[in-house]
Design goal:
Layout lengths: L5 E5 L4 H17 L2 E8 L11 H28 L7 E7 L2 H11 L4 E6 L3 H8 L2 H8 L4 E5 L2 H8 L4
Parallel strand pairs: 1-2, 1-4, 2-3, 4-5
């Protein structure tokens, strides 16, 4: 078995992501691991019928602003995480969420991913998809998923007719 030295916690700053960070903290304490906290800024979709450069420039500015905002949110989250700063790496990326997480795993030699799940149910999953599910399917390392609330976990365990 491979030692768990680097744990990645992708975050969207939601309650399930906070629950995942708490779980990762517990694992990091047990295995003396470093936690990498990553937020991926999704690329905005904009159709520009005329193909003007100004739209592309404004999109680049918007993306840079979103990454800066994400960095500030990560820095605000870090003190609340109860992980010493030398054991916590804060990172942002921009792009397709699953692809950027997979890239981060490979680039930073991540051993384990711990991420929150929203538990949206069948319709929500059908409409929105599931980053966690796609990551579980494609990740080269183990992925632990954590429910954000006890209600979500209970809903998952309830048998359906």
């Amino acid at each position: 078995m491979t030692p768990i030295r680097r744990i990645l916690v992708p975050t969207d700053f939601s309650a399930p992501a906070e629950a995942a960070l708490k779980y990762a903290r517990m694992l990091a304490g047990r295995f003396e691991s470093r936690i990498h906290l990553l937020h991926v800024v999704g690329l905005p979709y904009l159709y520009d019928a005329w193909g003007t450069e100004t739209v592309a420039l404004r999109m680049a500015d918007l993306l840079a602003q979103q990454e800066e905002l994400a960095r500030k949110q990560l820095q605000a989250l870090a003190p609340r995480s109860s992980v010493r700063s030398k054991e916590l790496v804060l990172a942002t990326a921009a792009g397709v969420t699953v692809d950027e997480i997979l890239n981060y795993i490979a680039t930073n030699k991540i051993d384990l991913v711990v991420m929150g799940t929203h538990g949206r149910g069948r319709v929500g999953h059908l409409l929105l998809g599931s980053v966690a599910e796609r990551l579980v399917q494609r990740s080269p390392v183990p992925v632990v998923t954590v429910h954000g609330t006890a209600a979500a976990a209970k809903r998952k365990r309830t048998p359906r007719p």
